[in-house]
Structures are given as structure tokens and as C-alpha cells.
Amino acid sequence: MIAEPPKLLVLSSLxxxxxxxxxxxxxxxRMFRVAKHLPLVVLAPQAWFPFQGLIxxxxxxxxxxxxxxxxMDGIEVHRPRFLCFPGVWKRTDGMFMAIGCFLTARRVxxxxxxxxxxxxxxxxxxxxxxxxxxxxxxxxxLTLRGKEERQARMDVGGVLRKAxxxxxxxxxxxxxxxxxxxxxxxxxxxxxxxxxGVDLDKFRSIPRLTARSQFGLPTNARILVSVGTLxxxxxxxxxLDCMPALRERHxxxxxxxxxxxxxxxxxxxxxxxxxxxxxxxxCVHFLGAFPPDQLHVPLSAxxxxxxxxxxxxxxxxxxxxMSCGLPVVTTRVGGNSEVVCDPSxxxxxxxxxxxxxxxxxxxxxxxxWDHEAIIRYAQSNGWERRIRVLVHVLQDALAEAPEGAKPxxxxxxxxxxxx
Length: 419
Hints:
Helix content: 25-40%
Strand order of the largest sheet: 4-5-2-1-7-8-9-10
Mean pLDDT: 91
CATH superfamily of the largest domain: Glycogen Phosphorylase B
Number of helices: 16
Largest sheet: 8 strands, mixed
Number of strands: 16
Structural class: alpha/beta
CATH architecture of the largest domain: 3-Layer(aba) Sandwich
CATH class of the largest domain: Alpha Beta
Low-confidence stretches: 410-419
Radius of gyration: 22 Å
Strand content: 15-25%
Shape: globular
CATH topology of the largest domain: Rossmann fold
């Protein structure tokens, strides 16, 4: 008897939309590649609160509305709303997410005969996932992506632990997150570490002078670049604090800050004020957000990539920078040292050690790096290698699920993917 192939219901509250095209790009990049091998539908629940329109008057980027349904690259993306109170009662988010998703999830599961739930992020998505798994009688694979390391330290009510232990299989994007799962008591045999990959077609360097000319940058300057949403944890402010000392050693040093507001907020105004207070107005350049297929341009303009982040799961942007030949300087948090795992591709310093960060950047801008070796390392981390492993994990999760955890067959017209 031929085993039934997985047909996925992908659950991730962080997923690109017209309102937030950069949100959860790494989830889309992975799962749309999986879609070349396995059919899937995306469920991207949107947090909702009755008065959030009033909040947007003061915080324009707060929960921007997205269409409730769209088709992206031929794949259905459904965005049901769920009740989520801003800043309070976070312990209820997972339950309300499951309730808000249930009717849509049941409809698409029946229509497309979906048989496996693929959930991203431990909480609230993972907790919502274990409820949907129970209600829909469908096995679940949970991917831990970075927030969980921090959430584990304040897991009120054990909701994250329940999500981790309730999954049939676990995927973690780094070994650091695997350790988080093990601390909760997860079975190591059910955990697979699969880091994010890099799109080798999008991230290829262009000539440095060509890239610099697009931004009016000096042709012979030393240039740092830092990329991410303009939020506290990405650490742009920490890099700015290093700049005066670095400029004393390298008067021609410039910093490119690439990014905009994200789901976690926007500290752009604060960063610009910090830049002015440090007297860095002429050498720090805020370039705004770039779509993924254009990000290689500012990366190609730089000499060194820097990210002084406070936590990450597996930062795709490191491999994206390396694909353009850039060495990386970053902090020892989450899975950073697993990506920047060799001195030939960059340097990892202890988080919070400002002097170590200054010294690492100083050394990086004067070192003669083997840029081709850095590119080869990035190429060895292309998406296709990751996807092959992931497809096997998804197949195994469905094959190993007990019969009682599988959806009840639906009689009549299938409503399949080709209807």
C-alpha cells in the first residue's frame, strides 16, 4: 500500500502581506519551496482588537490591515482574525488564535483533504496548533524559530511547554533552539535541526562601485551595513554607539542602515536622533526597507556586515550577506554562532561587550578576507538542501502519526487542489 503524501495546512501568524511585505519572509521562502514537492494552504491569522484603528492614529504601523484572502504564487493564503489584546493577557493569545482559525481551518482541510498541520513559532502559534490538531484530528509538526529561547524564561502557565510537547515532530532552526526543546522534556528522536537557507539566485553581488554609485557613497570609503526591521532587539543602536570610536581609527568609515518598521515596532526616529547626537550625520545612511530581490545592492556596496542583535533563531540575513561576499560581525546569541561558525566567514562576540564589538569591527574592516570562500560557504547553505530534509521530516510525521490523530476521510467530491 502506497503511503499517503502530506498535504499541509501551514499555520504562521508572521507571513508576508501587502501591508507588511517583509514580515515572515523566511517562512514563505521555506514553505513555497516545499510547495514544489507537497501541496499546501497557508493560514496566517491576524491579531485583532475592536479599537486598534484608534491606536493606529498614534502608531501608524500598528497591526496594518491585510486582505483576508489572497493567492500568492498559486498558493492560497487565508488570514482569519483572532482576538488579541495589545500588551495584556498574552496567555490567552494561543487559545483565541485557535478559536479564530478553526472554521477556516476546518473548511480548507475538508476542501483540500489536508492531513498535516505545519506550525511556525512556539507561541502563540504552537499552542493554537495543538488545539487545532485535537479539533481537526490532524498530526502536527512545529518549527521553533527564535522567540522561544526568550519565551522559555517566562512561560507563564506552561503554554509554550505544552506546544512543544504536544507536537508530533519538532523542527528547530538552530541547535540552541533544540536545547530549549530538550529542556522542556521533548524527545530528542523527534527533533530535527534544519537551519534556514539562502536564495542563491537573489543574493549575488554586483560590482562595488556600481552599488555605491546608486547611493552616492564614496568609492574608497570603508562601509559597514546592518539590515533588519528597526526594532530594539536588532541592535542598530549598539552599532551606532561604536561608530565614534571606530571613526577615530577609520575617518572614512560609513554605516548603512537598511530596514523599516516591523511587527514589533519602529525605533527609526530614535536611531536618527541618536545619530545626530553622536555627530554621525554625515556618515550614517538610513536607506529604508528593500524588497528581497533588491537587498543585494546595499550589501554589495559594503565591506562588512554587522548585526548586534539581542536574540535570533537563525538569521537568514547572515547568509544573504555572505552570498554577496561579506564577512559578518555579530553577537553570541541564539543560533548566530551556528551560522557564523568559522573565523573565515566572520566574528562572533559576547552580547553586551561593547569593547569587543568595536575591536571585532575594527579588525574586520582592515582584514584581507577571502570573499570567494565566504560565497562558497553561503552556497553550501542553499535552500534546496534544507528542503530535501524537511520534506522527509513531514513525510515521516504523517506516516508515524497514530490513526486516531489523522483526519476522518471526507466522502463525496474531493474539492482538491485542481478543482
